What does this fold into?
Amino acid sequence: MKDAIEAVEEAFIELQKGTAEMPLRTSVTFPEVDGWAGIMPAWLKRMGAFSTKIVTVFYKNTEKNLPTIMASVILNDPETGEPLALMDGTYITAMRTGAVCGVATKYLARKDARIAGIFGAGVQARSQLMALCEVRTVEKAYVYDIIEEASKKYALEMSERLGIPIEPCRTPEKVLQESDIISCATTARKPFFEGALVNPGTHVNLIGSFKPDEREVDEVLVRRSRIVVDRLSEALEEAGDLIIPMKQGIITVEDIHAELGELATGIKQGRTSDTEITLFKSVGLGIQDCAAAWRAYNRAKETGLFMEISLSR
It folds into this structure.
C-alpha cells in the first residue's frame, strides 16, 4: 500500500502539471443484469507508463458468489505500442482506490486523527483501511455493513492483518459517533446515514458511487463539508454525491474547493482547521490504475513474480 500511495500521488502531480493524458471514461451498461463496464486509458509521460483498464461492476454477482467489481489492466510500451503486461485489474483497482483515499487523507484529515470508520466490508473496504493506516496512526477502527456477518468477518481478518482492534457495528450511527476518518466503500445507491450526525473535524472519503443518479451520502453532509475531488470534469459527469445536491440548488460548482492534484502540488491548501468537515469524492481515474500497474509491473520484474507468454505464433 505504501508503494501504491506513492505511485498514485505521483500520478496526480503529473495530471496537475500537464504531463498526463487521460480521456474521459467510456462506459457500457447492461440493464438486464444490472451491470456496467468502463474502459479507461491513461498515459503518464514522466513515469513512462501507458495503460488501459476494463472494469466491470455487476451488482447481482453477490448472488453468484462472485466479486461485484472485476477488472483487467494491460500495459503497453508508449514508444512502440508493444504489449508489456496483462494483470488482474481487480486487485489493482482495490489498491489504487485505497491509495487515492490515502493521498486525500494525508492532506485532509486532522493530524491527530486516530480512529477510522469503514462503511462496507468488501475488497475495497479492506484497501481503504490499509491506506488510512499508512498515512495516520490508526489506533482503532469501526466497521458497518448491511450484512452483519460480513462486518464480523472483516473485523477479524483486518484486525489480525493490521494489528489494531476493529469493532463491527450494528448501526451506521456508532461508526459516525466514534470516527475521526470515515471511508465509504459501499454499493449503496442512496444515502444510508444522516449527514447531520457527522462530527465536526471528521474527514470523509467517498468511493462507492460513480453514477450521476446515485450517492452514498446526503446533501446535508455535502453542504457542511470542504469538498475535494479527484478531477472536476469527471466529478461533474459521474459524482452523484455532488451532482444531486447541485441539481437541488444546495451547492454549486464553486463550492468544490480543489482537485487532489492541487493539494499534492501545494497550489491549494487542504484542511484549514480542526473543526471543519472535509470530504473527498473520487469516481476513479485511469491515471490511478496506470501508476499502480506500472509500479506492480516493475516490482514483478525485480522479484521475478511474473509469467512470460507469447501472444503470437
Remarks:
- The first strand starts at residue 20 and ends at 21.
- The chain has a mean pLDDT of 96.
